[in-house]
Amino acid sequence: RLPVPPGPRGLPVFGSALEIPKECSWLTFAQWAKTYGPIMHVSCMTSSIIVLSSREAIIDLLEKKNAVYSDRPIMTMAGELAGLKRLVAFAPYGQRHREGRKLITGALGPRKAPELHAIQEAKTLVFISRLTESPAEFRTHIRWLVASIVLEATYGITIDSYDDPFLLEVEKSLAEISDVSAPGAYLVDAIPSLKYVPEWFPAASFKRIARETRERSYALEDKLYQAARRQLDRGSATPSFVADLLKHNYDPTQDDHTLYAEVAVMFYGAGADTTVSSILSFFLIMATHPDIQRKAQAEVDSVTSGRLPICSDREDMPYLGAVLKEVHRCNPVLPLALPHYVREEDVYAGYRIPAGSTILPNTWAILHDPELYPHPDEVIPERYYDCSNGDLNPDPQDFAFGYGRRVCPGRTLAEDTLFIVAASVLASFNITSVVPLKGETIEYRGGAISHPDDFACGILPRRST
Ligand code: HEM
Fold first, then answer.
1. Domain span at 336
2. CDD domains of this UniProt entry (predicted)?
3. Deepest in the core among 59, 98, 155, 205, taking most CB within 10 A?
4. Is the CB of residue 438 less than 8 Å from the CB of residue 453?
């Protein structure tokens, strides 16, 4: 038998579970990869994790062998007990997952771009005026902006403020989902047979937590979906994902409704925190790199000549495009993507990849590899201009949005939102003077989603500076 890839030995029974930090585990994995190489085996309680830290390994396995490497690990607490495996991002690779993805890619394809751009541009206009009125609250405005774009595009629901009761309910449910899916948080994930323990049993509070999370997320999914249906019945529906599905299916079965509701709820679940984190990184990078900001503003000004930017300006603003590539490279929002899973044993580079391994692509390690991106800790938009060596500076967006048949289906929506926000902010404001709100410097943190530490920054209307 071939050996498994090299990796830290860890402790008996626990393996390396106690050495993997809950925050920024991608940094620890990147450090270990310097010793053990780009294909690393990490044992963690009863499971095997294979961490991939090179572009070649990720392409060879997750892209070229995507039929084998597109499953998701079985998460007993989140997936089974809390019912999340019904949702596209957590679903096992198979028919239901494919159906869900097909609906999302259809709804976000080029045909739908004009409708989506209209929503993105209108909401960004309101965002700019709110930012002018209360710049110190830029975080709240960013969260409102992303929520209002996603909920309008998915359900046709208008959200006026970040305190909207509907939105607070959605955020609460998401926080619960994030709690139950935190790796290592529940013993039942390491010992799946515990799932059979009855809820009343002492120390089985995880069963109650899972049931409550499941019930609340189902109720919310239904509430949002029914709100969109009611608008259609009243004839007041604006173009949206749900309205479009129901307009094209005159006689939906109960199974259709269930599928549509499950897929719709994914837009916010997968698209809100991720997009917010990228926009925050954009603000941080602009505030800390005034020269880059000025250069991007000059480009925006020359294209728009005084009007506000629109989504179709994107291809005329290559420098801003390069800045946004750096935003994704410096802070890949999902630094380990989402975990993939391999059901069958495989062989790669002389190693055995055991059946049932969780596969973690270390996107952060690739986007900070000095062999691929010279001076990886510096923000250098110009790095994408030099095409003389085709192996250097590959487009970070091809990594930041994941891999193979699990690649993010919301990429275009996310990129367009980031672009219109960035271009409109640059046209309207100078972003200055960053102040860390905790500690001395601003680091990127997080468990699964990476985001910058809290910071304050100056946001001054350009006409007054
Ligand atoms: C900056 C914003 C975003 C980033 C960086 C991002 C990145 C990612 C990544 C890395 C994955 C995991 C891919 C993998 O497993 O290999 C993913 C999955 C996913 N994303 Fe995004 N995403 C963003 C925004 C969005 C938006 C706006 C939507 C809305 C539709 C969305 C929907 C999804 C879905 C449904 C999945 C699961 C796909 C599957 O399992 O088949 N994402 N995203």
1. 17-464
2. CYP64-like
3. 155
4. yes
Determine the Cα–Cα distance for residues 337 and 323; give it in Å rounded to an integer. 22
201 found inside a domain: yes
The pLDDT tens digits of the residues spanning 414-440 come to: 999 999 999 999 999 999 988 888 888
Cβ atoms 284, 243 nearer than 8 A: no
pLDDT tens profile 77-102: 999 999 999 999 999 999 999 999 99
Question: Which pTM value belongs to this model?
Answer: 0.95
pLDDT per residue over 323-368, tens digit each?
A: 999 999 999 999 999 999 999 999 999 999 999 999 999 999 999 9
442/29 Cα distance (integer angstroms): 21
DSSP assignment of 337-354 equals -S-EEESS-EEETTEEE-
Residue 391 counted as domain residue = yes
Is the minimum distance from the CB of 7 to ligand 1 under 6 angstroms? no
Angle at 67 between CA 66 and CA 73, to 5 degrees: 85
Residue 360 Cβ contacting ligand 1 at under 6 Å: no
Band of pLDDT at residue 450, cut at 50, 70 and 90: very high
161 residue type, one letter:
S
Of residues 239, 143, 292, 159, the one with CA closest to residue 300: 292
The answer to whether the CB of 39 is under 6 A from ligand 1 is no
Instruction: Evaluate if residue 400 carries a pLDDT over 90.
Output: yes
Cβ of 408 less than 6 Å from ligand 1? yes
Residues 6+ apart with CB under 8 A from 198: 204, 207
Question: pLDDT tens-digit profile of 136-187?
Answer: 999 999 999 999 999 999 999 999 988 898 889 888 888 888 888 877 778 8
Specify the DSSP element, H or E, that contains 3. Answer: none
Q: How far is the CA of 116 from the centre of ligand 1 (A)?
A: 17
Q: Whose CA is nearest to atom 1 of ligand 1?
A: 275
pLDDT of residue 371: 94
Side chain identity at residue 289, one-letter code: H
C-alpha 358 to ligand 1 mean position (Å): 18
Distance of CA 169 to the CA centre of its chain: 20
State how many domains the chain has: 1
Q: Which of 342, 408, 421 has the most ligand 1 atoms within 8 A of CB, as the residue to mutate?
A: 408
In a domain, 3, yes or no: no
1 domain residue, yes or no = no
